[in-house]
Amino acid sequence: MKQVQTVLGPVPVEQLGVTLMHEHLVIGWPGWVFDPLVRFDRMRVTSLLVERLRELKALGVSTFVDPCPIELGRNPELAAEVAEATGMNIICATGLFTNRLGIPVYFRQRTVDEIAEIFTRELSYGIGSSGIRAGLIKCATGLNEITRHEEKCLRAAGRAHRATGAPILTHTESATMGNEQLDILASEGVDFKRVIIGHSCDTANLEYHLGLLDRGAFLGFDRFGLERTFPDRLRIASLAGLLSIGYARQIVLSHDHVGYFLGRSMFRTPESRQGLAKWSYTHLFKEVLPKLRTIGVSETQIQTMLVENPQRFFGGLR
């Protein structure tokens, strides 16, 4: 029986249930820990996250995938506390972010194999002294290019995948470089049925979508509600088109929502909150799925994207 590693231990993939494939409990941009005006109130943040994930549980969600990379405030112990309190399966990641917003200097000085060794250890033995093992690998590229450090991390992800069998979920900027990510991963021997090209819904370019799908990867339609980057109506139109021609088995859904930003809030003014009014963990269930049903998307297709595809991704099945 295939299993997936959660922050509370392995569970059979058949028990994942309704799964949000790309969400975040907390995010902290590198350097937030050095701000003397910031204090992390762990009890308050934990309580907030527990409340929000209980709301998700009430909507039928069983699994929450948090692909926070190493340097963006990843907190596996916090995730375990929230999982224990809510009964939610929470899956955390190893991996690094983009050149522009992550990959600290220490990692830029490491070789591909040294980075792969770190990823592999976190997948096989645990993160730091927590004993909590990552369940997938995160890698990321910036807008319209892949820097040499991002390429190193992609190659390290590929090598850790081959060493452990863990699947890979990527970040893209404005739905660019997905094919180039696959090219690098292919050169490292990665099985594309274990790859999600994330944030593919930040474009309505069906040629781009079909190119990735026809290579065998999953697409992440994983930013619903984040209208700052792309409007939901175009995400829905693109998704409906892909579903109508038979690609339900290669698409996963989510919001890329962040429950709590570590450090000082980035959203202190109305201008900074523009395009975020509907961005939440529950938007998909309260607004997007009803719209999809109205335009003829079937319950079978919805079940495939939310339940069966995450099982295939983590289980290595097709």
Q: How is the quaternary structure best described?
A: single chain
Mean pLDDT: 96
The radius of gyration over CA amounts to: 18 Å
Which spans of ≥5 residues are poorly predicted at pLDDT below 50? none
What count of structural domains? 1
% residues in beta strands: 15-25%
Secondary-structure element series: EEEEHEHEHHEHEHEHEHEEHH
N- to C-terminal distance: 15 Å
Helix content: 25-40%
CATH class reads Alpha Beta
Query: In one word, what is the shape?
Result: globular
Give me the CATH fold name: TIM Barrel
CATH superfamily: Metal-dependent hydrolases
List key phrases describing it.
single chain, 318 residues, alpha/beta, TIM Barrel, two-stranded antiparallel sheet, 12 strands, 39% helix
Provide an overview of this structure.
The protein is of the alpha/beta class and 318 residues long. The protein has one domain (3-315): TIM Barrel (Alpha-Beta Barrel). 39% of the residues lie in helices and 16% in strands. The chain has ten helices and twelve strands. The chain has helices at 42-58, 76-86, 105-108, 112-124, 148-164, 178-187, 206-214, 232-244, 283-294, 299-315, and strands spanning 3-6, 9-12, 18-20, 24-27, 61-66, 89-95, 136-140, 168-171, 195-197, 218-221, 251-253, 258-261. The strands form three sheets. Strands 3-5-6-7-8-9-10-11 form an eight-stranded parallel β-sheet. It has a two-stranded antiparallel sheet with strand order 1-2. Strand 7, helix 5 and strand 8 form a beta-alpha-beta unit. Helix 1 (42-58) crosses helix 2 (76-86) and helix 4 packs across helix 5. The chain starts with a strand and ends with a helix.
